[in-house]
Amino acid sequence: MSTNAYIKYLTQQLVQYFNLTKTERKENRQQRKGERTSSVSTWFGIVPFALSMFFKKMKKGKQMS
Questions:
Q1: Which of 19, 43, 44, 63 is the most buried (most CB within 10 A)?
Q2: Range of the domain at 13
Q3: Do residues 25 and 17 make contact, with C-beta atoms less than 8 angstroms apart?
Q4: What is the pTM of this model?
């Protein structure tokens, strides 16, 4: 990508961002935040999730008895 094309792209993105109202920006931010996966599962895969489920199940079983 040439420098001129990159600068043109950046200015277009900035103009689009500044044309949004404050509430629209907040809604977009909240939506992006909700769509993210947790960093633990991204870095280490499903193992931490499986372990947490296992320990929750064990803890729940001890409380019931």
A1: 44
A2: 3-64
A3: yes
A4: 0.45
